[in-house]
């Protein structure tokens, strides 16, 4: 009798993940065990901790693997010679040992994609393989390539390059692609302008040069302030405002230099 559903245990299992002896004399259905521990969900969707049914010991379902969660009681399955329906509701019937052997080929068995870790039933594997998020279909040769290796595919197979801005392959040179094909547009962080890819470098370089000129100008004003013959209160306010502007300019200079460095054009 299953300790969870209180019916005859189908594919009876003993929990081993809690590290206690509570479950040596009690069994659960395999499907009940998967639901109880969350093994039928993605690791990130499982409970952080799961308490033993009988004592205070716990386990961590998020890091739990099926082989470490339970052991199957083959002796109890051998003793049951009645015919049952497959636990995955695929229509197959047989005794428990036959069902246990059938599960390896059951079309309703839930499996996990080794690339994107999505879960699906075996009868939908072909559909999943067509739309797996870990792969990208090359627009030139229609070959499915791993997304992480798509850039190398474009360069090695097609002799082109992969644009990291618009995330598309191109047979043109990087310069010609930016001037004619690239659809990437970026809003300027300082104005409302929308910058085409081919103008991004010059646009941020202009900002950099402007901030650098203003910084040099304000630094000279700070150095010359003692020579300015005005009243002391005005001189103090002038110094504070100038230093605030200098602080802002130095910060923005660093930001622009970082933007240029990210585009690998800063010298």
Q: Would you kindly provide a written description of the structure presented here, covering whatever features stand out?
A:
- With 267 residues, this protein is α+β, with helices and mostly antiparallel strands.
- It has 3 domains: 13-112, no CATH class; 135-183, no CATH class; 186-262.
- It has helices spanning 30-37, 66-69, 74-79, 96-102, 125-131, 150-158, 174-180, 200-224, 232-262; strands at residues 13-15, 50-51, 58-59, 70-72, 84-85, 93-94, 110-112, 119-121, 135-137, 144-146, 161-163, 168-170, 185-187, 194-196.
- It has a two-stranded antiparallel sheet. A two-stranded antiparallel ribbon has the order 2-3.
- Strand 2 and strand 3 form a beta hairpin.
- It is elongated and about 95 Å long.
Descriptive keywords:
3 domains; two-stranded antiparallel ribbon; alpha+beta; 267 residues
Q: Assign a percent range to the helix content.
A: 25-40%
Percent strand equals 5-15%
Uncertain regions: pLDDT < 50 for 5+ in a row? 229-234
Tally of alpha and pi helices: 9
Count of all domains: 3
Spatial strand arrangement across the major sheet: 1-4
**Structural class designation:** alpha+beta
Task: Count the beta strands.
Answer: 14
**Gross morphology:** elongated
Mean pLDDT: 79
The Rg value, from CA coordinates, equals: 33 Å
Q: Note the run of SSEs as H and E.
A: EHEEHEHEEHEEHEEHEEHEEHH
How would you sum up the major sheet?
Answer: 2 strands, antiparallel
End-to-end distance = 74 Å
How would the blueprint of this fold be written?
Layout: E1 13-15, H1 30-37, E2 50-51, E3 58-59, H2 66-69, E4 70-72, H3 74-79, E5 84-85, E6 93-94, H4 96-102, E7 110-112, E8 119-121, H5 125-131, E9 135-137, E10 144-146, H6 150-158, E11 161-163, E12 168-170, H7 174-180, E13 185-187, E14 194-196, H8 200-224, H9 232-262
Antiparallel strand pairs: 1-4, 2-3, 5-6, 7-8, 9-10, 11-12, 13-14
């Amino acid at each position: 009798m299953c300790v969870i559903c209180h019916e005859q245990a189908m594919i009876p299992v003993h929990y081993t993940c809690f590290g206690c002896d509570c479950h040596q004399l009690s069994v659960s259905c395999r499907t009940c065990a998967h639901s109880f521990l969350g093994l039928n969900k993605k690791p990130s969707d499982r409970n952080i901790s799961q308490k033993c049914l009988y004592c205070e010991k716990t386990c961590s379902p998020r890091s739990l693997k099926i082989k470490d969660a339970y052991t199957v009681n083959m002796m109890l399955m051998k003793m049951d010679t009645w015919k049952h329906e497959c636990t995955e509701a695929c229509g197959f019937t047989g005794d428990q040992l036959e069902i246990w052997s059938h599960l390896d080929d059951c079309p309703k068995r839930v499996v996990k994609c080794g690339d994107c870790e999505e879960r699906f039933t075996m009868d939908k594997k072909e559909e999943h393989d067509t739309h797996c998020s870990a792969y990208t279909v090359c627009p030139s040769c229609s070959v499915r390539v791993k997304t992480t290796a798509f850039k190398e595919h474009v360069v090695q197979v097609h002799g082109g390059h992969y644009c990291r801005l618009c995330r598309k392959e191109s047979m043109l040179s990087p310069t010609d692609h930016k001037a004619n094909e690239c659809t990437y547009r970026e809003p300027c962080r300082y104005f409302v302008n929308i910058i085409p890819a081919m103008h991004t470098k010059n646009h941020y370089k202009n900002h950099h040069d402007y901030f650098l000129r203003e910084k040099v100008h304000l630094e000279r004003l700070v150095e010359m302030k003692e020579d300015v013959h005005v009243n002391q209160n005005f001189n103090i306010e002038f110094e504070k405002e100038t230093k605030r502007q200098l602080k802002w300019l130095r910060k923005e200079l660093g930001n622009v230099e970082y933007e240029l460095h990210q585009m690998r054009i800063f010298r």
